[in-house]
Amino acid sequence: MEKLARKQVQQLTPYLSARRIGGTGDIWLNANESPYSNEYSPALNELNRYPECQPEELITAYASYAGVSADQVIATRGADEGIELLIRAYCEPGEDAILYCPPTYGMYAISAETIGVERKTVPLTDDWQLDLAAIRQSLDSVKVIFVCSPNNPTGNLVDQQDIKTLLEMTQNKAIVVIDEAYIDFSPESSVSELIRSYPNLAILRTLSKAFALAGLRCGFTLANQEIIGVLMKVIAPYPIPKPVAEIASEALSEAGRARTKRQVLDLNANKAYLQAGLSILDGVTVFDGWGNFLLVKFPAGDAVFKAAWNEGIILRNSPVEDCIRISVGSREECERTLSFLRSYLES
Fold this sequence. Notes:
This protein is an alpha/beta fold. It contains twelve helices and 13 strands.
């Protein structure tokens, strides 16, 4: 049966999500999840009927939260579906390409590869910013460009003027997708206001991180009405289950947003605590991060990762040499992780 699959799929190495990698322990700081488990009360009635494709209450609520109009929002099964929709809608397999800038989120490449779309890469500069000159030289056949800000796994913000320059150099040529999965931890850095000025801009959002709803699988793509209309042509008939829409709408209510804001403040405080504690350890470099995680460089990073794993502290290996990505958890989780790393490095 495997030989009947498309050649691209036969050769594909799947994305290794945190859950696929596994592990055993009681401290899980490997998936950039929130440590908060909030309670919701969905009605769970009329499940015999199909849901709306784009539930009006949900779309209106997120548009209000994001500061855009309702016709500039499409809800998806996590931001990952938004990635796939944009590639499927705008890239001809075997003809067009996507471009992304590693080190960055791995699903841009996986989604393109499964569809048979070429992947082009232009690595970030040494300070993890866009190499605009190299991008300009690589735009032949490129239809979609992915930029993650705050970037995963590095945690840094991409310079907004560089994003504007990229949008200008690609007008009428390519869609520029800014992945803002972590923007709720630094909302002042969003580029959502640029949607009015740049018709080739799309923005990915999610409720998985700051809203503590990773298990809900609810994301959004923000863009002008024309892009949204194109995506509506290729989206599944019923992408948002009724319970998902009800819980997400409750999370986006005034009370839900207030709770999320408080939790974000707590997580940012925990991040500062973790960063300060790690920074004083010999040989350790902690990079500034604007999401709910930190990228940390250790002497012999692989050995540190394995030692923590064996101790039941599950972190995330990074493609950046000797670096580990550490999600920001509860204060207790941060304290226990810091205590272990201090003890390990000093032994």
